[in-house]
Design a protein that fits this description.
By secondary structure, this protein is mainly beta. The chain is built from two helices and 32 strands. The strands form three sheets. Strands 2-1-3-6-9-12-15-18-21-24-27-30 form a twelve-stranded mixed beta sheet. Strands 4-7-10-13-16-19-22-25-28-31 form a ten-stranded parallel beta sheet, with no helix packed on it. It has a ten-stranded parallel beta sheet with strand order 5-8-11-14-17-20-23-26-29-32.
Length: about 300
């Protein structure tokens, strides 16, 4: 009997250690109680952090080499409200970062720009992740040589325009490129769903459900102009809009990038049932030759307008 009890105690010990160290650096097998400690362990090198299922108030700043943060089981690693430097749950300014299966929620900061991810430098890849009920999902600075890819992710309950300062589901600064694929945007609380100042923007095979949106603006805003492709998406414009004049806006603020050749094709756009209004699918301030292909547009939606 003593032998059995000793064996059970030995078996229980690793589980307890794992519970107290939910952040594991895969390359070394070392576990850490705090996300920031695991991030610091990678430093200027490269490494992967695996996050055990749970809800965490952690945040971290990464200014090193290349980092990957992955949920052990997608959608079970939840970062709930933590923010570093008054910015975001993850502040990234290393060479490159990738996130897989992570949930970011309830991020709010003093300047009302609280984000799941604040990207200040380097490349970023986000897959199978969720950003919800925060001020912003992803917010970036400028990095003309950098690229951002978002795939199979959800952005819900994000954005706002308090006192004239707007936040958005995704807001990309002067980056080289933004690519969004197979993702869902819904229930916006202000601002735009995707606002991109990247030189090249691709949004494909995604859905924009604005039926439960509140005081929202454009579905996709390319305020500085952009080339690329918007294709295979489904857009539904909701009732409660701060600005319902267009679904997609091109170069509404500046012409910092060329827009000639921007492809908009194969999309399905409609206005929510029970809402009667006139709007425009693509509003263009660039006065360049965009490439509008066949798009399926519901009642009340004009295909194109120069402004």
């Amino acid at each position: 009997m003593k032998y059995v009890l000793l064996s059970l105690a030995c078996l229980a010990a690793p589980a307890a250690a794992q519970d107290s160290a939910p952040f594991t650096v895969a390359e070394t097998g070392h576990g850490y109680a705090r996300l920031d400690d695991a991030v610091k362990a990678i430093g200027s090198g490269s490494g992967t952090i695996t996050v055990a299922p749970g809800s965490y108030r952690d945040c971290a700043v990464f200014a090193g080499g290349t980092i990957a943060i992955r949920a052990a089981t997608p959608s079970t690693a939840i970062f709930d409200g933590g923010a570093c430097e008054g910015k975001a749950t993850l502040v990234l300014r290393g060479l490159a970062a990738s996130l897989d299966g992570i949930v970011f929620q309830h991020v709010r900061v003093a300047d009302r720009n609280g984000a799941g991810i604040r990207l200040e430098h380097g490349d970023l890849t986000v897959t199978r992740s969720t950003f919800r009920d925060s001020e912003q999902g992803i917010l970036t600075a400028d990095d003309p040589g950098g690229s951002i890819t978002v795939d199979h992710s959800t952005f819900s309950g994000l954005g706002g325009c308090p006192e004239g300062m707007c936040s958005h589901s995704i807001y990309v600064g002067g980056y080289g490129s933004l690519t969004v694929t197979r993702s869902r945007f819904e229930r916006g609380t202000g601002g735009h769903y995707v606002k991109s100042r990247a030189a090249r923007t691709e949004v494909t095979d995604s859905s924009f459900d604005d039926t439960q949106g509140r005081a929202t603006n454009y579905m996709i805003d390319l305020p500085s102009g952009s080339v690329g492709r918007i294709a295979g998406n489904v857009f539904v414009q909701g009732r409660d809009k701060e600005n319902y004049s267009a679904l997609i806006a091109v170069a509404a603020e500046a012409r910092d990038h060329p827009s000639a050749g921007l492809v908009v094709e194969g999309n399905d756009a409609s206005i929510a049932p029970g809402v009667s209004r006139q709007t425009v699918f693509v509003a263009d301030w660039s006065h360049e030759a965009l490439r509008l292909g066949a798009n399926r547009l519901g009642a009340g939606i004009k295909a194109f307008e120069t402004r």
